[in-house]
Design a protein that fits this description.
- The structure is a single chain.
- By secondary structure, this protein is mainly β.
- It has one domain: Rieske [2Fe-2S] iron-sulphur domain (Rieske Iron-sulfur Protein, 3-layer Sandwich), CATH 2.102.10.10.
- It contains no helices and ten strands.
- Strand 3 and strand 4 form a beta hairpin.
- The protein starts with 9 loop residues before the first strand and ends with a strand.
- The structure holds FE2/S2 (inorganic) cluster (FES).
- FE2/S2 (inorganic) cluster binds next to loops.
- Pfam families: Rieske (PF00355).
- InterPro entries: Rieske_2Fe-2S (IPR017941), Rieske_2Fe-2S_sf (IPR036922).
- One of its GO terms (molecular function) is metal ion binding.
């Protein structure tokens, strides 16, 4: 029996694929994810609102409110902090989006 080697990190996208501030959705290895960019910071989440368990966006790649500072669910308007995924307004206040660990290296966004 051979030991399984650890799964290598995988690039999600190039940093330049995201506006600043910006957001983009991905279907990645069977998972629905989205990434938020604010300056040189990137946050990646599962695309599932904790209120009803459905995708957040109404139109493709639209995950931010009009200010570009908060993540917004299009269905009932819940607002989430980009860095923690905490809902700070709306029907699921106090609940969290599921964050996916990532890092930026060589101009690309990598999932850990
Ligand atoms: S489904 Fe997201 S706020 Fe209701």
């Amino acid at each position: 029996m051979t030991a399984e080697s650890p799964t290598p990190p995988i690039a999600l996208c190039r940093l330049d694929d995201l506006g600043d501030p910006g957001s983009k959705g991905f279907l990645f290895q069977g998972r629905s994810l989205f990434a938020i960019r604010q300056g040189q910071q990137i946050f990646v989440y599962e695309n599932r609102c904790p209120h009803r368990g459905i995708p957040l966006e109404w139109t493709p790649d639209s995950f931010l409110d009009n200010s570009g500072r908060l993540i917004q669910c299009a269905t009932h308007g819940a607002l989430f902090l980009p860095d923690s995924g905490e809902c700070v307004s709306g029907p699921c206040s106090g609940e969290y989006l599921q964050q996916v660990a990532c890092n930026i290296r060589d101009g690309q966004v990598w999932l850990d």
